[in-house]
Amino acid sequence: MKLKTIALAVSAMMASAGYAAAADCEPLNIGAAISLTGKYATNGVHTQNGYEFAIKKIDEAGGVKIGDKCYNFKITYYDDESKGDRAATLAERLINQDGMQYMLGPYSSGMTKAIAPVTEKYQIPMIEAEGASRSLFNKGYKYLFAVLSTSEQYLASAVTLMAEKAGELGKDVKDIKVAIAVENDPFSLDIRAGVLEDAERAGMQVVIDEKLPRDLSDMSAILTKVKLVKPDLLIVSGHSKGAATAVRQIGEQQIDTPMIALTHCEAADVVGNFGAAANGILCSTQWAETLSYEDPLFGTAANWEQEFKETYPEYKDKTVPYQSAQASAAVYVFKDAFERAGTLDKEKVREAIAQTDMKTFYGDIRFSEAGNNIAKPMVLRQIQDGKYNVVAPSEFASHKVDFPRRLPTN
């Protein structure tokens, strides 16, 4: 009964989106188990909105052309409640009971890790946009494809940027102290591994290496250590809830670490929720609306953002989370693959996905043999006077980084 209720709610939501499928296009069904409740719900909704926006744009452009027929994507969603075992069960249901031959990914590396063995077992192509853990791509999966960059890249540029700033100040990089606090989940543990590797390569000292509390609601004990040890760089990764907790408590405890870098700033709306306390914080991002990416369906990155905000006014006064952008990109890859395959045969569609080489508003997409996107870099944005400005790597920067980070004045 619960699943039926969710499906009906989703159908009503889609009907209210203000668009209808072209009368002469058939439905092309795709399944998705996604976090609409639980600790990942915020980003689950961002992901769902990205999927639905892409479907709207594809419908308006005439649908998916396969041979002499056209199709419109129709997604059946179920709520995985941010629980891996439930996500796997729902994937089984979508495939065996609902007859899905294609899947879009869930939110988070943990949920993707739960579902991937199921889609692989039944040889169901899945394009995912929200599972970045590099451990997803060393299992030999042939039916899993990810449009986003892998997690060890998320905050590597923060270590590089810290090394650059140390050089400018005449400080020996070997004297740079790094503090790390991450969630105990596949995504954040990969980020930790990437930062540790980069810090060791640079010769920096890792002085704090902690796991965030399981419920992500209090990191005050870790921040007390930060005050005592005085690192030069603080790295935090804990999805949206962890980002919100970090910014709130960094402000409350007046943490004066010169460089602080987080994941999921935009998704947690740290500017809207915490105001000046968020200024100066560096935020890893898969995508930014200022980047010079473009494609025939969505136009430029800036155009995607503008039209997305028009479709979902709740984002009007916010920076749109990259989770929504990459979700739209995943749907676009499916459209491209179906049209190149020229068939609904899932093996031929899988082959077409594997051969993807396309430019999109989200960036270049080209898959390795393991299924991860090897064509798109990560960037860092810094919150400057309430705005998210790209500051690294330098070839993508629209603004100079403010360093050291200045504490907000009361």
Helix content: 25-40%
Q: CATH homologous superfamily of the largest domain?
A: Response regulator
Report the uncertain regions: 1-21
Overall geometry: globular
Q: According to CATH, what is the topology of the largest domain? A: Rossmann fold
Quickly give the structural class: alpha/beta
- Can you tell me the CATH class of the largest domain? Alpha Beta
Q: Count structural domains.
A: 2
Give the name of the CATH architecture of the largest domain: 3-Layer(aba) Sandwich
Strand content: 15-25%
Summed up, the helix count is 12
Radius of gyration: 21 Å
Mean pLDDT: 93
Strand order of the largest sheet: 8-7-9-10-11-16-17
Structural features:
about 400 residues; alpha/beta; Rossmann fold; 2 domains; seven-stranded mixed beta sheet; three-stranded mixed beta sheet; 12 helices
